[in-house]
From TrEMBL:
Residues 17-77 form the HTH tetR-type domain. This is TetR/AcrR family transcriptional regulator. PROSITE patterns: HTH_TETR_1, HTH_TETR_2. Residues 40-59 bind DNA. Pfam families: TetR_C_14, TetR_N. It comes from Streptomyces glomeratus. It comes from the Bacteria. Gene3D superfamilies: Tetracycline Repressor, domain 2. Keywords: DNA-binding, Transcription, Transcription regulation.
């Protein structure tokens, strides 16, 4: 392809995002219809009109297809800490970000509950879900440590990050996850001074 024929970077990124979204949507639909183990990656790729190698260029495993927001959540947690306005409480910023995720949106609640039932009813997906949130805890701990001027997270920073992430996981099961998250982070807030966080 000659230089003038190359798609603009933004166009390429939009096409990649559309393909990624199509794969994730197809996987969720097929898993909900037939069950996780009854669906092959070839069927998902076919439903999204891409090849199997293309599927694996976007998702490293069959399980990962269901968690397409993983990179965005990691980036969002970092941004919530590092890009909050001066003087803003770090927990407020992280809580606001977490409440912007699909599980906290009332209009998406029914679909999320079907997703959650699938995850918790499938050992491979449940294991991926738990490991994903542990990775998010590590990401958040690094962001909190950097915010404090530390080169690496210390024990307290890791504990705070783990508590926040565990709270986010727990409240997804609650009828009112927004109120439940506010309640759990309120428990943590009183200990922030001792943890040395702003």
């Amino acid at each position: 392809m000659t230089e003038p024929d190359r798609p603009a970077p933004r166009l390429r990124e939009r096409k990649k995002a559309r393909s990624r979204r199509a794969l994730a949507d197809a996987a969720l639909r097929l898993f909900l219809e037939r069950g996780y183990h009854a669906v092959t990656v070839a069927e998902i790729a076919d439903a999204a009109e891409v090849s199997v190698p293309t599927l694996f260029s976007y998702f490293r495993s069959k399980e990962a297809l269901l968690f397409d927001l993983e990179p965005e959540i990691a980036a969002g947690l970092v941004a919530a800490v590092s890009q909050r306005s001066p003087g803003r409480d770090v927990l407020d910023a992280v809580q606001e970000y977490l409440l912007s995720l699909p599980w906290a949106e009332p209009q998406q609640r029914e679909q999320f509950e079907a997703f959650l039932a699938l995850v918790h009813g499938t050992p491979a997906l449940r294991a991926y879900w738990q490991q994903m949130w542990l990775r998010h805890a590590d990401t958040l701990a690094v962001a909190l440590a950097a915010d404090r001027g530390l080169e690496a997270p210390d024990l307290r920073t890791r504990a705070v990050a783990r508590f926040v992430v565990d709270a986010a996981m727990l409240v997804t099961l609650e009828p009112d996850p927004r109120a439940a998250l506010a309640d759990l982070l309120g428990l943590l807030r009183s200990g922030l001074d001792a943890a040395g966080l702003p």
